[in-house]
């Protein structure tokens, strides 16, 4: 289960970093939005730091996964809200990305909360 949670953290974190690079104008032009880029970069960094912690402290994988994905979900909901009220970027890719990442975060958070509690047995797993 730890490896599944780490995979969620890796994919979600990488996804947010890529979205941030798009909004900074590094990977694509025409989608620049500084506030979105900063928010996505922070969320991506939190998820990737959580991945590093989960890797370094396997007994904490579940807890770290819940906290980091909960933070990312909250931040993404703020982003979706800004799209809904017209403050954030409102392109089709932005809306699709937010819908997809909300599903991924919800799924990852569900997996994390249903995982066995962080115990001594988690420390002995490969």
Q: Which class do the helix and strand fractions yield?
A: mainly alpha
Radius of gyration: 15 Å
User: What value does the average pLDDT take?
Assistant: 92
Topology as a string of helices (H) and strands (E): HHHHH
Strand content: under 5%
- Unreliable spans: none
Largest sheet: none
Q: What global shape is seen?
A: elongated
Percent helix: over 70%
- Count of domain modules: 1
* Terminal CA distance: 11 Å
Question: Helix count?
Answer: 5
How many strand segments?
0
Can you describe what's shown?
- This protein is mostly helical and 126 residues long.
- Helices cover 78% and strands 0% of the residues.
- The protein has one domain.
- It starts with a helix and ends with a helix.
- The model has no long low-confidence stretch (mean pLDDT 92).
Offer a concise description of the structure.
By secondary structure, the protein is mostly helical. The chain contains 5 helices and no strands.
Write the layout of secondary structure elements.
Blueprint: H1 2-23, H2 34-56, H3 61-85, H4 92-114, H5 120-124
Helix pairs in contact: 1-2, 1-3, 1-4, 2-3, 3-4
List keywords for this structure.
mainly alpha; 78% helix; 126 residues
């Amino acid at each position: 289960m730890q490896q599944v949670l780490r995979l969620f953290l890796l994919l979600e974190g990488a996804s947010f970093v890529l979205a941030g690079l798009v909004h900074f104008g590094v990977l694509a032009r025409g989608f620049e939005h500084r506030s979105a880029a900063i928010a996505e970069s922070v969320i991506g960094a939190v998820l990737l730091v959580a991945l590093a912690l989960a890797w370094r402290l396997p007994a904490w994988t579940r807890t770290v996964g819940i906290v980091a994905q909960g933070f990312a979900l909250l931040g993404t909901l703020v982003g979706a809200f800004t799209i809904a009220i017209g403050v954030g970027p409102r392109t089709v890719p932005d809306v699709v990305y937010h819908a997809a990442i909300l599903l991924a975060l919800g799924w990852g958070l569900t997996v994390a909360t249903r995982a066995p509690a962080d115990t001594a047995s988690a420390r002995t797993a490969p």
